[in-house]
Amino acid sequence: MQLSHDQVEGTPDDHGYVAVSYGETELVRHRDFQHNRNFRARFELCEDLVETVAEKIAPLLAPPSLPTFIESNIPTKAEFIEWLAIEEAKLKSKGAAAA
């Protein structure tokens, strides 16, 4: 996680935003999260933000799916099976390295 602070305060009604990003993808933004009027609701707001982040990040973290034989451009089934075994081994090794 990387904290980034915006020095610009904005107007009295337009300040205190919080955004959560994954790489270049913004997952969630709340425009007045840190505003005083939301102080009492901060725990609910946090739960809502975390829930949204979880929903939006899941597809970004999912392993890529391999194409079926029909979806591939591999000419023969035998070549496809050979290619598939290699690609599945690569995915397994990436998964083991990430764990």
Number of strands: 2
- Helices and strands, in N-to-C order? EEHH
**Uncertain regions spanning at least 5 consecutive residues:** none
Give the N-to-C terminal Cα separation: 18 Å
Write structural notes for this entry.
This protein is α+β, with helices and mostly antiparallel strands and 99 residues long. The chain has two helices and two strands, in the order E-E-H-H. The chain has a two-stranded antiparallel ribbon with strand order 1-2. It is rod-shaped. The mean pLDDT is 86.
Describe the SSE topology.
Blueprint: E1 18-22, E2 25-30, H1 42-61, H2 77-98
Antiparallel strand pairs: 1-2
Features:
single chain, alpha+beta, 2 domains, two-stranded antiparallel ribbon, 2 helices
